[in-house]
Inverse folding.
C-alpha cells in the first residue's frame, strides 16, 4: 500500500533535530503504517517530535490528543452530550431532542479517522490513563475505524444525511492514514499487545556537545537576537558537567534539553558569560532553572558545599 | 507483492528462533519485515555496515524488551558474516543470470527460481549471505534478485538448514543476571480487577434513565433527574504474606503484590506480614514493624477474600508436625472469618513432598496452589467463590 509521505530526515525542522537512528525508525513506522511509541526522559522532546515531523513533511498542524487520568478510548473518538439532550427534551416543542445524532460530535482522533488525510496524530502521555486504555485504543489504531455505540442503528441513515458520518466511522476509500505518534512517560507499564503493535523509539539526551549546541541554536534562533556561539559552546560544556554530577548523585530528574535551552536563554538575557559559571558552585537562580525537584536542589548544593570544604 | 513471501534465510532463521524462544511475534510482523526489506530498510546506502543495519531493523521490528534485543544481537553474533568473495561469486552468478534472461525475453515475467547450480555456493554457508546488495542493481527492486536465490533453498527439507542458537549463551553479557519478575505488576493489577463483586453503594451520583423517564411520565414534567448510587466493586481482600528468611527469594514478588493492590480497584485491600506462622499479631510492614492484633484485622476483613503467601517450610525442606498442626488450627479459625481462603506457595509443587507444606495442603480445607500465572487465575476464581 503506497503512502504519500516523503522521507523524514530529522534535520530540516526549524527548532528540532532528530538523530539518524530516530529518523530511520520514524520512516519505518510511516512506511509500515504502524503507530510509533515514543519514550524517553522528560524534557528530551518526545512531544515535539510530532511537530517536527509535521513541519518537515509539510503536514500542517499536529492533531494532538492529550490523555487524562480519567480518559477512556471512546473520549478520543466521539462525545455524546446527554445532558444537553435532556435539557432540550424539557421543551416539548423542541423536536431536535427526539434524536440522538444531533448531540454526537467527533473528537480529534475520530475526526482524523473520518477525514483520512495525511497528517500527524499525537496521543500524548498514554500512560496517564487507566491500564485498560491502551488496549481499548489498540483495535481502533489497527483498523482505523470505529463504531459510535451511543448512536442507535435506526438513526444511522439520518445521521449520515445530516452529519456526514454514520454509526460506523471510517476514512474515505482512497484516504490515507495519518502518522500516529504516542508518547509515554513509563508511569504505568503498557500492555504487551500494545507494545507489539507499535514501533518503539527511545529518545535519549544527546551526548554530543556539537549536537546540543545545534539544538540550542535552532531553538533560540527565532526568539533571541545575536546569540554568541561562545556562550552556547561554554554553556553546553558546563551543562554537560552539571548533568554528569547530577547523574552521579542519582538525582530524580536530570536536567535535559528543555532545561538547557531555557538556561542559555536566561544567560544571554542576563548578559552573563559562560566562563563565570562554576558547576561546583552554582548560583541559586541557575539551580532553580536546572533542577525541578526540591530534594534534588538540596542534594546538589550539599555536595558542592562539601567539595568546597565550607 | 510480486516476489514469494519469505524472508532471506538470515532473518527467516532469526524469526523462527524468536518464535521458538516464545517471543510473541506473528504473521503480521513477518510480513512487515518483508515490506521493510522491499522498501530498502536493513541495508546501508554505501554497502558498509549492512549487517548492522539488519540488526537495527530486526530489533526495531521484533524486539520490545531488553531480553529480546540481546537475543537478536546474539543471533547475529552467532552466525558468521558472509565472506566478501562468496558475495562477489553470488553477485557474478546473478549478473550472469540477468544477462542470460535479457537475451531470452520470454522468461522475464515468470519468477523462475535460480537453477540449482547457482545455489551451490551460498548454501554452503547456512544463512550467511545478506539479503540484498544495493551496489548490484541500484535501480531495481533491491530485494528481488538476491531474495530469489534465497527463497528457493529456504523451504523446509530443501537443503539449506535453518541455523539455531546454541542453548547455552556464549560467555559475556548473558552471564550478568537480569532480574525477571515472576509476574509483572501490570499482570497482577489485571488479576485483581478480575476479583469483582459489583454492588451499588454510596451517594446517588449516577443518572438513572429509567427512573427519570418514569418520573417524567408520571408527573408530566421533570423537576430533576433521578439518580442512583454508582455501581462499584465491593470485593475486599486481605493478603497475609510470610516474610521469614526462607521467603527472601520472593521479596520482590511480595513488593509488587503490595504495590499493585491500590490499582486493583478493590473496595478494600491490605497486606499483613508475619514470620513463618501468623500468631497473635500481624505487621503492617515487611520488616515486621507496626504490629496490629490479628483479631482486629480479621474483624475488619470479616467475609473478605484471604490470600496467604508462604512457603510453609517447603523452601528449606523441613517437616515440622507441630507447625503443621498449629497452621491447621489457625486456618480453621481464619475460615470462620473469611469463607474464601487460598494459599499460594511459591515453591514448585514437586518440592512440597515430605515437608510441612504437604501436610498442610493435605489436611486442611484451604487449597494450596503453586505461584504462577495460571494458578493465580485459579486463586482469584476461588476467592470469587467458585470452588
Amino acid at each position: 500500500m503506497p503512502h504519500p509521505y516523503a522521507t523524514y530526515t530529522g534535520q530540516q525542522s526549524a527548532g528540532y533535530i532528530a538523530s539518524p537512528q530516530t529518523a530511520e525508525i520514524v520512516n519505518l513506522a510511516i512506511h509500515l503504517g504502524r503507530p510509533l511509541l515514543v519514550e524517553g526522559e522528560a524534557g528530551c522532546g518526545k512531544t515535539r517530535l510530532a511537530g517536527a515531523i509535521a513541519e518537515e513533511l509539510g503536514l500542517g498542524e499536529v492533531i494532538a490528543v492529550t490523555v487524562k487520568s480519567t480518559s477512556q478510548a471512546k473520549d478520543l473518538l466521539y462525545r455524546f452530550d446527554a445532558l444537553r439532550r435532556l435539557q432540550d427534551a424539557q421543551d416539548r416543542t423542541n423536536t431536535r431532542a427526539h434524536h440522538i445524532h444531533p448531540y454526537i460530535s467527533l473528537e480529534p482522533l475520530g475526526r482524523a479517522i473520518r477525514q483520512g488525510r495525511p497528517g500527524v496524530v499525537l496521543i500524548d502521555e498514554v500512560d496517564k490513563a487507566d491500564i485498560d486504555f491502551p488496549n481499548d485504543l489498540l483495535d481502533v489504531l489497527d483498523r482505523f475505524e470505529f463504531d459510535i455505540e451511543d448512536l442507535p442503528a435506526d438513526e444511522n441513515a439520518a445521521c449520515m444525511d445530516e452529519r456526514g458520518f454514520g454509526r460506523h466511522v471510517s476514512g474515505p476509500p482512497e484516504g490515507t492514514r495519518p502518522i500516529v505518534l504516542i508518547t509515554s512517560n513509563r508511569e504505568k507499564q503498557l500492555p504487551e499487545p500494545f507494545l507489539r503493535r507499535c514501533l518503539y523509539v527511545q529518545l535519549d539526551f544527546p551526548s554530543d556537545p556539537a549536537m546540543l549546541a545545534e539544538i540550542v541554536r535552532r531553538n533560540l534562533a527565532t526568539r533571541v537576537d545575536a546569540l554568541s556561539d561562545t556562550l552556547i559552546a561554554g554553556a553546553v560544556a558546563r551543562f554537560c558537567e552539571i548533568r554528569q554530577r547530577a547523574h552521579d548523585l542519582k538525582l530524580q530528574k536530570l536536567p535535559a534539553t528543555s532545561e538547557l535551552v531555557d538556561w542559555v536563554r536566561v544567560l544571554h538575557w542576563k548578559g552573563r558569560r559562560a566562563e563565570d559559571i562554576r558547576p561546583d558552585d552554582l548560583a541559586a537562580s541557575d539551580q532553580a532553572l536546572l533542577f525541578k525537584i526540591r530534594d534534588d536542589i538540596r542534594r546538589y548544593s550539599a555536595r558542592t558545599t562539601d567539595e568546597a570544604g565550607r | 507483492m510480486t516476489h514469494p513471501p519469505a524472508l532471506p534465510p538470515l532473518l527467516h532463521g532469526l524469526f523462527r528462533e524468536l518464535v521458538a524462544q516464545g517471543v510473541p511475534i506473528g504473521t503480521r510482523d513477518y510480513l512487515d519485515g518483508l515490506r521493510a526489506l522491499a522498501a530498502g530498510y536493513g541495508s546501508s546506502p554505501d554497502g558498509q555496515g549492512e549487517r548492522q543495519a539488519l540488526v537495527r531493523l530486526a530489533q526495531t521490528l521484533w524486539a520490545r524488551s531488553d531480553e529480546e534485543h540481546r537475543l537478536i544481537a546474539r543471533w547475529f553474533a552467532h552466525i558468521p558474516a558472509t565472506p566478501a568473495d562468496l558475495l562477489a561469486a553470488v553477485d557474478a552468478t546473478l549478473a550472469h543470470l540477468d544477462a542470460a534472461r535479457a537475451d531470452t525475453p520470454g522468461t522475464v515475467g515468470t519468477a523462475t527460481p535460480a537453477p540449482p547450480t547457482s545455489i551451490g555456493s551460498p548454501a554452503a554457508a547456512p544463512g550467511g549471505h545478506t539479503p540484498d546488495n544495493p551496489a548490484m542493481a541500484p535501480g531495481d527492486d533491491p530485494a528481488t534478485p538476491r531474495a530469489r536465490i534465497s527463497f528457493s533453498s529456504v523451504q523446509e527439507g530443501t537443503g539449506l538448514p535453518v541455523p539455531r542458537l546454541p542453548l547455552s549463551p556464549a560467555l559475556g553479557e548473558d552471564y550478568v543476571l537480569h532480574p525477571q519478575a515472576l509476574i509483572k505488576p501490570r499482570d497482577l493489577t489485571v488479576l485483581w480487577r478480575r476479583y469483582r463483586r459489583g454492588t451499588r453503594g454510596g451517594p446517588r451520583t449516577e443518572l438513572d434513565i429509567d427512573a427519570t423517564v418514569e418520573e417524567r411520565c408520571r408527573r408530566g414534567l421533570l423537576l430533576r433527574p433521578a439518580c442512583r448510587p454508582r455501581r462499584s466493586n465491593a470485593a475486599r481482600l486481605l493478603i497475609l504474606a510470610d516474610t521469614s528468611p526462607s521467603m527472601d527469594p520472593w521479596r520482590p514478588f511480595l513488593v509488587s503484590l503490595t504495590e499493585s493492590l491500590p490499582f486493583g480497584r478493590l473496595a478494600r485491600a491490605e497486606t499483613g506480614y508475619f514470620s513463618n506462622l501468623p500468631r497473635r499479631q500481624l505487621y503492617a510492614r515487611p520488616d515486621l514493624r507496626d504490629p496490629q492484633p490479628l483479631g482486629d484485622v480479621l474483624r475488619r476483613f470479616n467475609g473478605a477474600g484471604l490470600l496467604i503467601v508462604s512457603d510453609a517450610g517447603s523452601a528449606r525442606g523441613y517437616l515440622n508436625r507441630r507447625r503443621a498442626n498449629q497452621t491447621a488450627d489457625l486456618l480453621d479459625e481464619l475460615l470462620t472469618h473469611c469463607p474464601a481462603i487460598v494459599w499460594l506457595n511459591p515453591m514448585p509443587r514437586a518440592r512440597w513432598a515430605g515437608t510441612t507444606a504437604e501436610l498442610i495442603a493435605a489436611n486442611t480445607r484451604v487449597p494450596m496452589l503453586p505461584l504462577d500465572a495460571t494458578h493465580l487465575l485459579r486463586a482469584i476464581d476461588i476467592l470469587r467463590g467458585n470452588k
